[in-house]
Design goal:
Layout (H helix, E strand, L loop, with lengths): L2 H61 L6 H11 L22 H8 L4
Helix pairs in contact: 2-3
């Protein structure tokens, strides 16, 4: 092997090392991005589980009207028959379109009592 071949081989090794460094950097960037996304999804998943528990608790409370006064039970019955029981925009007594839920009605029925 003469000096020229040796020099060419060293130069090729240097180019390959540069390519490898670039590839490693790109892989590290991808890995960092994946780790960040995973952390975001874990937090979102935790929040969704908490929200699901809240909704399940609310559904259990809704299906168990034992704690409701007689007047609230009457409002609940009207609501379940498809009528508004809230007074938002004078909606009381009007038909709920497609029996869509109304948070204002649910607040009147199941909201804090005091």
């Amino acid at each position: 092997m003469d000096k020229r071949e040796l020099y060419d081989n060293i130069e090729q090794l240097g180019e390959k090392a540069d390519q490898l460094r670039l590839m490693i950097g790109n892989t590290q960037d991808s890995l960092t991005s994946l780790v960040e996304r995973n952390a975001e999804l874990e937090i979102e998943n935790q929040h969704l589980r908490e929200r699901l528990r809240e909704l399940e608790d609310k559904a259990l409370a809704k299906n168990n009207p034992a704690g409701l006064s007689k007047s609230r039970q009457n409002l609940e019955k009207l609501y379940e028959e498809g009528f508004h029981v809230c007074n938002v925009d004078n909606m009381y007594g009007s038909r709920r379109i497609n029996d869509e839920p109304c948070v204002f009605c649910e607040d009147v029925i199941y909201g804090e009592r005091g």
